[in-house]
Design a protein that fits this description.
Number of domains: 7
Number of helices: 9
Radius of gyration: 49 Å
Number of strands: 59
Structural class: mainly beta
Length: 899
């Protein structure tokens, strides 16, 4: 509580204040007094001077008082800047980037310049012929969260193929066996591309196991199916049948015929039996005494079947007759006689032709054992045709008799199948050549794999070999893959499904054969940010001068990451002196006098300066007029996806170019390194002397890479192999660059590390685990509530949720203060709020996790309730607080002074 000294004591003036700061402070106090301290000190000293004791009018309108107040204002300004400059003199407390850059430069550390981004652009070209994309082809893309379009140039010459502009890959297909329940068929032979069979819904197909694939004469296990519907998949027609197959055995393929009309045998619908009454029969009987008696009597009626038919005879003629014991005459039931290959149809047919195939289905009896029967499906051809009138039993009518190329006799071992019932005959007209059919293909049941199928010709498929492809799926991050192999498959000129082998497994659910989910881009062109500027003469060389320095005429100079270089940032700059290319180096230290070298440095305003040697460490410039020429590129900071509805623009003409896509993101671009990052990274990199030895060295190097805001390194066994395991947290919106960062660190280990162990990224990507807080606090009513809440946000370290945001890093949930996997407590949050000046008390009423959303700004938590006093965090994640998830309720308190 405040002490009241108005009556019985005089509070001492705090001027000049004693300068006393303990170690390791983030800010040091270096002011001997503020305006109020200085003014109070001067006012009180007025009373101590006898000459001024009677000076009673001390309002601001008095010139003397105004003079003293002006002195207090001047003192306030001087002490403010004294403290500010004092803090800027130390790396821990400095705030200005310029100050931090000057301090770390004393240790040999240079703040990283802005970096140019990299991207994979997909070219879509028209026509049938390939299109060559030249090196340094200019592109322009408006990226999200960027005020101006970013300019890129392709890295190398590239050939774009029209068929790889935008296409699909498909999940592998398997062919099931033909068995009971199969509902879909496809024709394998004849080739449906060269000799298509015309089928339509309602057509009948006869399926069976043929004795001869080329010229079948018999089909086993035959059945007739009816086509219900037809669909096409990858150029192959699939025929769905009504119902399903009813096979009892499984087989890969069957022979099939398309059926047209179906006929019966003539007489199949006659009476089962008929009775024929013969005439009178005379008989002579000789008795005793040679008496001869002649008598005349009626024969008994003849009952016979009209449905039996022999399929094989001892003679060529076929004349069915019936006799009875004692009768020497015969009764004919088929008139006229038929040959054994003759088969009368149940009507006259005018449009059958010689050579037409017929499929005959019937039940045939064993001659040796008529109780033994068997169903047969036989295939024959028509050798001859004739129309005639025929009598079969009691049926007489016109018919077409077809003569088959061979009889229907079937001999199986001792069984001689030669007798048939004409009522069982079905004679099908065949309307197609023999077809070989299999079941419709089904997608593999495997969950994932590295084999997919491309639909195209052989040369089109071969153009994929060795290429990078981009998989783009709605509401998912684009994925990059490389095609390792494409086997040859004949015929090369036909569009077929052709196997493509990738460098890694993909989920097959993303690549259905119908309604594909993933769009594949195959004309991927790598490009780096930067615009090639016209050659610029930097100035005149003068051999009398040492360390001549020239400024590049345009900024910012493009830098790209080269993992093998030290430092890894390499400028897109070439310097020619008298038409000869000189070499860029990182330092003049240890260089020879005659070496034609130069170095590049950036100042605090990001201007680039080129410096040459002094004749002792690096050669001096030869004298000449405008003999120092620079070829360079400008542009940095590109990262992130393309702006919604924005289009990539080509910066030059390219024949048959249709459009350019940016299916993925631009990665790697960054603004110049800020002071806060340098404050953390410089000490570690200075200690490492550009060698990667300790775990902290790996962390420091990772922090120096664009997009990395937090890094952790540990020793661990990975598949029983010692390795450095990195945990990396990327800046908001730059999660897609994690693979590039891992590759860079691995190359660092190869070039500047011991290279005795692998460097492995985390098993899963590090993320921010967001929390929501609901807090109530009481505050001194003499303070402004808005200012208190702003101070509470700083104390808690809230983030803005924006990419590349310069969030305050002093608070409880700021990234620099937190470790991976570090938990937090509700009591710590309450204590942090209560330590804010003006806050009297604080209570946390709600504290809960919101998970790891990619964009916290779209998460609107409901009323936050206290789930637990402790908030845990996974080992690879970091707790974070988005400002929109902090709910504060302030209660004004009146604080009475104690007298």
């Amino acid at each position: 509580m405040k002490k009241d000294c108005r009556n019985d004591c005089v509070e001492p003036v705090r001027f000049p204040r004693l300068i006393d700061n303990r170690a390791s402070l983030s800010h040091i106090g270096y002011r001997i007094g503020t305006y109020s301290d200085i003014w109070e000190y001067l006012r009180r000293n007025l009373d101590k001077t006898a000459e001024l004791a009677k000076w009673t009018h001390r309002s601001a309108d008095d010139p003397g008082i105004a003079l003293l107040q002006g002195a207090a204002i001047l003192g306030d300004i001087l002490t403010f800047y004294q403290e500010h400059y004092a803090n800027e003199a130390y790396l821990r407390t400095a705030q200005w980037r310029e100050s931090i850059a000057d301090l770390v430069r004393l240790l040999g550390y240079h703040l990283s310049p802005g970096l140019g981004g990299k991207a994979q652009f997909a070219f879509e070209v028209k026509g049938e012929a390939p299109v060559v994309v030249p090196s340094r082809f200019p592109l322009k893309a408006q990226l999200q969260d960027h005020a101006k379009p970013s300019e890129f140039e392709t890295i190398s010459e590239f050939t774009a193929y029209p068929w790889l502009s935008k296409f699909n890959l498909y999940r592998p297909l398997t062919t099931p066996y033909l068995k009971a329940g199969i509902q879909e068929l496809r024709i394998v032979l004849p080739d449906q591309f060269t000799t298509p069979i015309e089928l339509k819904p309602g057509d009948r197909l006869l399926l069976g196991e043929a004795d001869n694939l080329a010229e079948p004469t018999r089909l086993a296990n035959a059945e007739i199916v009816v086509i219900d519907s037809i669909r096409e998949l990858h150029g192959t027609k699939l025929y769905k049948i009504k119902g399903a197959m009813k096979r009892t055995t499984d087989i890969l393929e069957l022979t099939a015929f398309k059926l047209a009309r179906t006929f019966h045998h003539f007489g199949h619908n006659g009476a089962r039996t008929f009775t024929q009454v013969p005439g009178k029969v005379k008989s002579t009987v000789t008795v005793v005494n040679s008496t001869t008696t002649t008598t005349e009597s009626d024969l008994p009626p003849l009952k016979s079947t009209a449905f039996s038919r022999w399929l094989d005879f001892l003679t060529e003629s076929f004349d069915p007759a019936f006799s009875y014991p004692g009768n020497t005459s015969t009764t004919r039931i088929v008139i006229p006689s038929l040959e054994k290959k003759d088969f009368p149809l149940d009507g006259e047919v005018q449009d059958l032709a010689t050579g037409t195939r017929l499929v005959i289905q019937t039940t045939i009896y064993n001659y040796n054992n008529t109780s033994q029967t068997k169903d047969f499906t036989l295939v024959r051809k028509i050798d001859g045709l004739k129309s005639t009138s025929l009598t079969w039993g009691q049926v007489t009518g016109t018919t077409t008799i077809v003569t088959l190329d061979q009889d229907l006799l079937v001999i199986e071992g001792p069984a001689h199948y030669s007798l048939a019932d004409i009522r069982n005959f079905l004679i099908h007209e065949v309307a197609s050549p023999p077809m070989l059919v299999r079941a419709g293909q089904q997608e593999t049941s495997s969950v994932d794999g590295n084999e997919l199928y491309f639909l195209g010709t052989g040369p089109q498929a071969q153009s994929l070999k060795g290429r990078a492809v981009m998989f783009v799926k709605s509401n998912a991050e684009p994925q990059l893959a490389h095609v390792n192999n494409v086997p040859s498959l004949a015929p090369a000129d036909r569009r077929l499904l052709r196997l493509v082998t990738l460098d890694h497994n993909v989920p097959y659910a993303d690549f259905p054969n119908e309604k594909p989910l993933v769009t594949v881009y195959g004309n991927l062109v790598s490009a780096t940010e930067g615009k090639s500027e016209s050659a610029a003469a930097l100035g005149n060389g003068d051999s009398r001068l040492v360390f001549q320095t020239f400024k590049l005429p345009k900024v910012p100079l493009t830098y790209l990451i080269s993992p093998s270089a030290t430092p890894p940032e390499v400028p897109e700059l070439q310097i020619y002196v008298n038409g000869r290319l000189w070499k860029r180096v990182s330092s003049f230290f240890g260089r020879k006098p005659e070496e034609e070298i130069y170095l590049v440095r950036e100042d605090a305003d990001n201007n680039s300066w080129v410096q040459f040697g002094d004749g002792k460490t690096g050669a001096r410039l030869p004298s000449g007029i405008k003999n120092v020429v620079a070829m360079f590129r400008t542009g940095t900071g590109a990262f992130g996806p393309l702006e919604v509805e924005a289009k990539v623009q080509a910066g030059a003409r390219l024949d048959r170019l249709d459009k350019i896509q940016l299916p993925g993101i631009a990665a790697g671009g960054s603004e110049p390194e800020d002071g806060e990052n340098a404050r953390q990274a410089a000490p570690g990199k200075t200690q490492s002397l550009d060698r990667l030895v300790s775990l902290q060295d790996f962390e420091s190097e990772a922090l120096g890479i664009a997009g990395v805001v937090k890094a952790g390194a540990t020793w661990d066994l990975v598949n029983n192999i010692p390795a450095v395991v990195l945990t990396l947290l990327m800046d908001t919106g730059r999660e897609g660059e994690i693979l590039a960062v891992r590759e860079t660190i691995t190359n660092y280990n190869t070039g500047r590390g011991p290279h005795r162990f692998p460097v492995i990224g985390p098993p899963q990507e590090s993320k921010r685990k967001y929390v929501a807080i609901n807090a109530t606090y009481g505050f001194d009513s003499t303070y402004l509530k808005d200012e208190i809440e702003a101070a509470i946000q700083i104390a808690l370290g809230v983030s803005s949720g924006k990419p590349n945001a310069r969030d305050d890093q002093r608070g409880l949930f700021s990234l620099l203060r937190r470790d991976f996997g570090e938990r937090e407590y509700a009591t710590s949050i309450a204590g942090t709020i209560q330590n804010v000046p003006g806050v009297i008390w604080a209570e946390v009423k709600g504290f809960q996790s919101l998970g790891t959303p990619a964009d916290p700004t779209v998460v609107n938590p409901p009323s936050v309730t206290l789930v637990d006093n402790i908030m845990s965090c996974e080992s690879q994640n970091v707790l974070c607080l988005y400002r929109g998830h902090l709910q504060l309720t302030g209660v004004a308190q009146i604080v009475a002074e104690v007298k």
